Amino acid sequence: MRKITVLMLVWVTICGSNMQVFASSKENVFDICVYGETASGVIAAVQAARMGKSVVLISKNKHVGGLATSGLTATDMNRNDMVGGLAREFYQRVYDYYLNPAVWRNENREVFFERAFKRTYRGKNDERRMQWVYESKVAEQIMLDMLEEAGAKLWTNERLDLDKGVQKSGREIKQIFLESGKTIRAKVFIDASYEGDLLAKAGVSYTVGRESNDTYDETYNGYHVNFTNGTDLTAIDPYVVPGDKSSGLLPYIDANVPIKQGQADKRVQAYCYRVTLTDDPTNRVKVQKPKNYNPLWYEVLVRRIQSNPDLTLQKIITLTPMPNRKTDTNHLDFFGASYDYAEADYKQRKEIEQLHRDYALGMLWLLEHDPRIPQHIRYEMKDWGLAKDEFEETGNFPHHMYVREARRMIGEYVMVEKNVTKKNRVGVSHPIGVGSYPLDCHYVSKVLDENGKLRYEGTIFEPVTPYSISYYSLTPKREECTNLLVPVCLSASHVAISSLRMEPVYMVLGQSAAVAASMAIDARQSVQDISYELLEQKLLDLDQIIIPGNTKPH
Q1: d(CA 115, CA 244)
Q2: Were 510 and a residue from 44, 442, 453, 472 both cysteine, which residue would form a disulfide, CB within 3.0 to 4.6 Å?
């Protein structure tokens, strides 16, 4: 007996580490792995867990929700009646939260809606009990609650190992490798990240930048100087020393762009941070001049302001009111600094993020302190500062940059301009959600045109009517990968993504992707081969809206 005991102890000593590896390996096997902590990823994880699937959500930081919980709190939702399913539930939870008088610390609900929207918050907008303006920390807690209630596992501070990446067997992803050394095996993977690292490492086709108009028979794609829409910069001198070409162009101005209107390039629209500001003195942290402040970054802006003395602060940056005297601050865009982000490694991305952070803080500091800025703008800006009770571990600054567009998959179906625009629309088959926001591409670059005049380039803004989104814009080509779905870096042209890229749409597509993933597991089929008729019925049963104006297709 003693001999057996000794042998067992020896065996445990020799194999103990292997036992631990085996145990760890078992813990890292899931039905569904959702990579990316965006709002789309959260909703996908919640839906998968509610369907009884074991699911893990991978967050690259300590947070969930992506931009929806990192400053972008004035939701781009011009048609809230086109948002159903779990996305609707999320906004209803926001609504319910703000019904509690105790959460209004420095104003009440009625005063806020009167101040923000010049009306009381009742009537038609209350029928669906949805509120789409909120505080970042409130939205994140709601998402964390939804994940916990559903039983989804959350891993934070984890990232894909960009060297080891993805292991495939044929067309199927078998496991992914994280920087921490962990591995994850899953039956279906959902890449819900803004960057699309998982889809890229899985060998799935994608593009970055703008196609030519000829690629998909579009009109707004490619290099695009808009002569009728946007800010006119033609009177502004583009040189460091005005009138002196030998002084060189100001930073981030391109001369002699070697392409014509509508031609392809690798540029993407400007990124920014959606900074949360407040004018509440008890909750305000004044913006400090960043260490890497570069006044030349803002010289075009300064010259534009000087040539338009009637400009107000609200015409330079957009301060959208949020509850408790906060704002969602937009248009701190850094034109020309985002081109390399999508395919950069983590170190390079961190540098680009820091560049955008310095730019945003520097622009806010300039608008309050630079003596060249008209006094009425500086006076208005002095009331604002960072909100002390938001983003406390990152210096009251958002933890996520607004990646408006990065990689875009080239999948089984590509959503293009004619699927989205009102004129000569071509409808899609196999709808799984609805988009309704205008084509909205922020400026891409500052250029000198053929006459040597300074122009912004790349903007698109074109209203649309609600349109359906094809399921097959979420699936890779079947010959490339059979167990991956992509609801954020979905298969769409540069033009179409400018409308599709809104957070409520990403939430809708995240839920639809999770339902499809669960079906693929149950039927032991590829994501391309599941029954659309069954998917359609399941989505309708979950109150997903997949046809504009209808809860059921005709």
Answers
A1: 48
A2: 44
**Amino acid letter, 390:** E
254-307: pLDDT as tens digits: 987 767 899 999 999 999 999 999 999 999 999 999 999 999 999 999 999 999
Non-local CB neighbours of 122 within 8 Å, separated by 6+ positions: none
How many other C-beta atoms lie within 10 A of the C-beta of residue 258? 8
CA 120, 122, 123 angle in degrees (round to 5)? 130
Residues 377-404 pLDDT 10s: 999 999 999 999 999 999 999 999 999 9
0.85 surpassed by pTM: yes
Q: 57-77 burial, b if ≥16 CB within 10 A, otherwise e?
A: bbbbbebbbbbbbbbbbbbbb
Residue-by-residue DSSP string for 282-343: GGEEPPPPPTT--GGGGHHHHHHHHH-TT--GGGTSEEEEETTTEEEEE---BTTS-TTSTT
Concatenated DSSP letters of 40-80: HHHHHHHHHHHTT--EEEE-SSS--BGGGGTT--B---S-G
Interatomic CA distance for residues 431 and 335, integer angstroms:
35
Separation CA 529–CA 536 (nearest Å): 14
d(C-alpha 175, C-alpha 498), whole Å: 32
Distance, in Å, from the CA atom of 157 to the CA atom of 520, rounded to the nearest integer, reads 29
Q: 275, 386 in Cβ contact below 8 A?
A: yes
- C-alpha span between 510 and 43 (Å, rounded): 6
Q: How confident is the model at residue 483 (pLDDT cuts 50, 70, 90)?
A: very high
Give the tens place of pLDDT for each residue, 470-480.
999 999 999 99
Whole-number mean pLDDT of the chain?
91
**How is residue 341 written in tokens?**
């982000």
Query: Alpha carbon 131 to chain centroid distance?
Result: 19
Q: Other C-beta atoms within 10 Å of 244: how many?
A: 10
Orientation of helix 39-50 relative to helix 503-523, angle to 10°: 30
DSSP 420-483: HSSTT----SSEEEEE-SPEEE---EEEE-TTS-EEEE--EEE----EEEEGGGSS--TTT-SS
Length of the chain: 554
CA distances from 550 to 101, 126, 434, 450 (A): 35, 20, 10, 49
